[in-house]
Amino acid sequence: NAGVMQNPRHLVRRRGQEARLRCSPMKGHSHVYWYRQLPEEGLKFMVYLQKENIIDESGMPKERFSAEFPKEGPSILRIQQVVRGDSAAYFCASSGVAGGGSYEQYFGPGTRLTVT
Amino acid sequence: SQQGEEDPQALSIQEGENATMNCSYKTSINNLQWYRQNSGRGLVHLILIRSNEREKHSGRLRVTLDTSKKSSSLLITASRAADTASYFCATPRGAQKLVFGQGTRLTINP
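ok -> structure tokens follow
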């Protein structure tokens, strides 16, 4: 049973380019979360999605960032017109249960984005 | 101020010793979770303790939760070099998102 998969593992973009990060949740999981981790810091929540729905995007920057989780295929975190401050590790997590917060989130290995 | 603040920020001990890390939080919770992150890797879930539990064990890990003090501790007994990692506490908030602390960087010296 494969865990949460993320690709690419490393991504280098020049300022102004677009970055697309993909996340495939664990088999049977329909809840996906994206987190961002700056160097030497903890993870910061960005967005929580279920299939075809954004449930909570309170951690997403207002501009340039978007996320989707289509009916088929992986979840995508898209960053348009990247800037150096977007350089970070982006982690995806998934869970199979909704409600109450009494659940475990399974994390992927992360995508390390470097903006040059 | 940040939910889930760990202390110490960094801890270095000798192999075989016990390591204790603490976490404080500010809002009411229904559970608290501890995660480990090896350098440059993703997070691994270690243990979840519910608000009605005081203590929980898993192998060499012992977690306590004091809801009156809004604090939790993670104890790793008989530490090994492979325990070298960053350890984060996390609490769920809102629509199941997790709020993480800054983490404790643990180094086990051989």
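The mean pLDDT of chain B is 90.
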